[in-house]
Amino acid sequence: MKNGATIxxxxxxxxxxxxxxxxxxxxxxxxxxxxxxxxxxPQLAPxxxxxxxxxxxxxxxxxxxxxxxxxxxxxxxxxxxEQKIESFSRNPDAPLKVGFLIDVSHSEAGAVRAxxxxxxxxxxxxxxxxxxxxxxxxxxxxxxLVTPSTSxxxxxxxxxxxxxxxxxxxxxxxxxxxIYWACQTQLGTAGDHHALIIFSDMLDNASEHTxxxxxxxxxxxxxxxxxxxxxxxxxxxAKTxxxxxxQTxxxxxxxxxxxxxxxxxxxxxxxxMNCYTVAYRARQxxxxxxxxxxxxxxxxxxxPPQRY
Length: 308
Fold this sequence. Notes:
By secondary structure, this protein is α/β, with parallel strands linked by helices. It contains 9 helices and 14 strands.
């Protein structure tokens, strides 16, 4: 009897377990947790990814921009893993929005004053055309807006000539703070052709923000940085200028005279108007090494090598 009771009890237990499991499965099916997605149901992007958009320039022989590159010719790698390209475009008809950051600190004031006295402001018209926008800001130990964003070239030229009226030439050079401020307050909305043209010796000695913090904000605002050193740069200045250009798909220039500056402005406009934008999804809040390749032989791709 004892063994029989044990077997009976075990049978009852198994029955309850099976019924309980069946009931659990029924509930799960009723709640839809075991119902597969239909083919027509939209696939949402994983919540831990973000859309990364980077500018890139494809240069052919003679460093002339190529304007007929197809998405199928481009490969994007992050941390050596190929990424699926979500979009690839070029919009040469979009207007430019360019910020001119002028260094008026002690170390650069003489070169900037010489540029102004030689009529350097007139060269803004080489870069900006009728539908384009620009703003002018001066910086030393802090940045200040001289001319708000406008398509009025005369106002921009007047602002360029008046940079020393907004700040006294004193103190250090807060270059990275000026870049951070410009992207945060003047270039916050991403656009197709956003750029900063920085006239400076690139010797930062007063910023609270680091170079990484400034570059991260530049990338998030989809802005390209072009640096212009008036005269011969120091080794440290050249290093900083190269860093800003490389990490934003821009370029750095050392300009010995006004004639060379006109050529620089021409080059910047051509490069900006022929820049491509490529987008892909990547893990959020994680920096990564970026590599962009073009299938064509003999071309050079300029793109940020790192996502901040």
